[in-house]
Amino acid sequence: MLGKLLLCCGLLVATCGFSLAETEIGKAAPNFTLPDTSGKEWSLANFKGKYVVLEWYNPDCPFVGKHYRSGNMQGLQKEFTSKGVVWLSIDSSAPGEEGNYPPGKLNEISARVGAARTALLLDPDGKVGRLYGAKTTPDMYIINPTGILVYKGAIDNKRSTDPADVKTATNYVKSALQAVMTGKTVSTTDTQPYGCSVKYSSN
User: Fold this and answer.
1) Which of 4, 36, 144, 195 could bridge to 136 as Cys pair (CB 3.0-4.6 Å)?
2) The domain that contains 182 carries what CATH number?
3) Per-residue pLDDT averaged across 83-94, rounded?
4) Exposed / middle / buried, residue 119 (Cβ in 10 Å: 0-12, 13-18, 19+)
């Protein structure tokens, strides 16, 4: 059943007809500028000196829903933004595709689920998603204060849509942030993300 769900969600992205870049752990995270749902421009370069989390987001994806229905994603957002981490959710769904909504609707969804991110950024042409090689929603990236990528991949090790699995999962994002923010080495830096394929434009 899970296999069918994964296929329906478009987890297998090799046949999408376009190529994705690949970011590397230990290398500088690519800079970008995107608008948020209120029209304000956000540039990664402005956050040197801070930890930054990038979360690829699609409100209609059941894997994203798992982490918001359980309160897991909001809990992480609240915990780490309170410590000065910049948390940027990025919606790369193309117009006409699942997860692409007008900014006002996205704000309504955010308010309903109690999202505590720093900003929700809009990437409808998929340029930033492709730049990072974002494959699924969610797909997570952690950037350290010098702009170096220190983690990329899955949010945790329970590749399901069941909110109950959050309680027993190993949360890679939380572990990585706790490690780097206390001067420790990140034990797991690169994992295979899981979820729905990012709904890029075919152009």
Assistant:
1) 195
2) 3.40.30.10
3) 98
4) middle
Taken as a whole, the chain contains a residue count of 203
pLDDT value at residue 12: 37
Measure Cα distances from 203 to 3, 13, 89, 155 in Å.
Answer: 28, 15, 23, 29
Residue 107 lies in a domain: yes
Report the relative pairing of strands 52-56 and 140-143 from DSSP bridges: antiparallel
Element (H, E) at 72: helix 72-81
* 183 is a domain residue: yes
Identify the band that residue 108 occupies on the pLDDT scale cut at 50, 70 and 90. very high
d(CA 63, CA 79): 21
Q: For 14-51, where are the E strands, in sequence order? A: 33-35, 41-43
Half-sphere exposure of 16 toward its Cβ, with a 13 Å CA cutoff? 21
78 C-beta neighbours (distance < 10 Å), count: 15
